[in-house]
Amino acid sequence: MKQTINLRDFPILKEFLKKKLKETEINQADIAEKMGISRPYVNSFMNGKTPIGRSRLEELCKILSIGEQELNEVFRGFQFKEEELKEFNPQLKEFDKK
To answer: What is the greatest pairwise CA distance in the chain?
Structure first.
């Protein structure tokens, strides 16, 4: 099972997270402090230079008040097969392929 994701490969998710940072007025230093990691590491995964683990992504979503439903909506924007999405997040609910 895939345990990491690189935002470089998911530009819609990358832009969505950046938008949420702006909306919530939370900066990378705030995220680093709340997650107990360095600000350069946050910058690195936010810019797609370093992969982010699934648990870290879930933690980031909590900090940015992104619910499971909202995150699923973002993933629906990708043109992936359902199996590929479930490989990264087996908890994803079935979705319409419209």
So the answer is: 40
Q: Alpha-carbon distance 47 to 11, whole Å?
A: 10
Whether the CB-CB separation of 17 and 45 falls below 8 Å is answered with no
pTM: 0.72
pLDDT attached to residue 98: 35
Q: Which residue do the tokens 């810019």 mark?
A: 47
SS3 5: strand
Q: How far apart are CA 98 and CA 87, in angstroms?
A: 20
Q: Which two tokens stand for residue 12?
A: 């819609």
Reported as type and span, the H/E element at residue 58 is helix 54-63
